[in-house]
Amino acid sequence: MPETGGRPRLLVADDDAEVRNILREFLCREYDCEAVGSAEEALAVLVAGRFHLVLSDITMPGMSGLELAAQVKALAPETVVIVVSGAQTLESAVAALRAGAFDYVVKPFELGHVEVAVRRALEHQELLEAKLRYERHLQEMIRQRTAELDGALRSVERSYRMTLKALATALETRDAETRGHSERVVNFSLRLGREMGLDREQLRSLEFGSLLHDIGKIGVPDAILRKPAALSEAEWVKMREHPLHGARILRGIEFLEGAARVVAQHHEKWDGSGYPLGLRGDGIDLLARVFAVADAFDAITSDRVYRRGRSYAEAAAELDRCAGAHFDPSVVEAFRRIPEGEWYELRRSSLGEARDGEARAADDPPALAPRTSPRGRARIRAA
């Protein structure tokens, strides 16, 4: 707060020029004083520069001293107010204190009483200012610590994400056919999840669940996992155990609790014909239902040893056909609301697609590739 020569600043507001001049001359011996004739003038002065104390008459033309006290409290919380009044009633004193005044002086007053009231008010003001400084200091410390904590949490989450991506990449080395699948299906799932209106926590669980959905294949023998031909019924029994293996691996990891449900239920089907538990409808975790559509779309449009990937149109038709049977119809509807071109862009931007692109010959494009229509829009072409 600005001061002159280190002295506290006082503002006197009284429409009686004689009273105003007496108070100014008396107080200016010890304090830096300024005097005005109305509450409106006092507010204008307070806006231009802060004061330690305002000494105001209650009854003035225009804005009253009580209204001024309330305005001062809102404008400068560290400034204290003493009101002066000719009314010697308890009600007037209570009204002044309720308006935010620190003290109440009755006219006609003795200057000695005014001096005592001013000193008490300035002592209170000093304590009030110290309290406000301390509160501001605490707020700044909280802001800084919060920023540090947010940064630390972001760093931890980045570490988690990098670790999980490394794990997913390591898993995909066992199955060259699905290389890049996890990265693509994460992008597909997140876009679909946003279309479904999932919140931030749900999207994070969906991301991690998509990334780790096949972690249970660690428990599937290579002879089955890497078999280049169709699996026998006995081999399918072993393969269908991988969601349960994955759920057991992630059990007890608190930050992966939502992801674990995706891992455990991503092969369940809307009509109950899925595995491993035969869950149906809303009994299947929502994130697992979202993932199932994204996973199926990637599977249909990606190359396999035994077939080429199919077009967006074929994939969309297949999802439509299976809505209400294999897939939650509302998730398929959300899929359909997303423009075709966005699916291509998501595939193109995926790390796995970049790897696939490096391995392909220039004359052997992926199934999901752009084609420009007469209007210049990106389209998804058939293989």
Which strand order do you get reading across the main beta sheet?
A: 2-1-3-4-5
> Radius of gyration from the CA trace?
37 Å
What's the total helix number?
A: 16
| Number of E strands | 7
Give the ordered list of helices and strands.
EHEHEHEHEHHHHHHHHHHHHEE
Instruction: State the share of residues found in helices, binned by percent.
Output: 55-70%
Gross geometry? rod-shaped
Query: Distance between termini?
Result: 75 Å
How many individual domains?
Answer: 2
Strand content: 5-15%
- Report the average pLDDT across residues: 82
Structural class: alpha/beta
CATH superfamily of the largest domain: Hypothetical protein af1432
The largest pleated sheet is described as: 5 strands, parallel
Low-confidence segments:
1-5, 352-367, 369-383
CATH topology of the largest domain: Hypothetical protein af1432
Secondary-structure map:
Elements: E1 9-13, H1 17-27, E2 32-36, H2 39-48, E3 53-57, H3 65-75, E4 80-85, H4 90-98, E5 103-106, H5 111-172, H6 181-195, H7 200-211, H8 222-225, H9 233-239, H10 242-250, H11 257-265, H12 286-301, H13 312-322, H14 329-337, H15 340-349, H16 351-359, E6 370-372, E7 378-380
Please give a structural write-up.
This protein is α/β, with parallel strands linked by helices. The protein has two domains: 134 residues, Response regulator (Rossmann fold); 204 residues, Hypothetical protein af1432, CATH 1.10.3210.10. The protein has 16 helices and seven strands. The protein has a five-stranded parallel beta sheet with strand order 2-1-3-4-5, sandwiched between helices. Strand 1, helix 1 and strand 2 form a beta-alpha-beta unit. It is rod-shaped, with a radius of gyration of 37 Å.
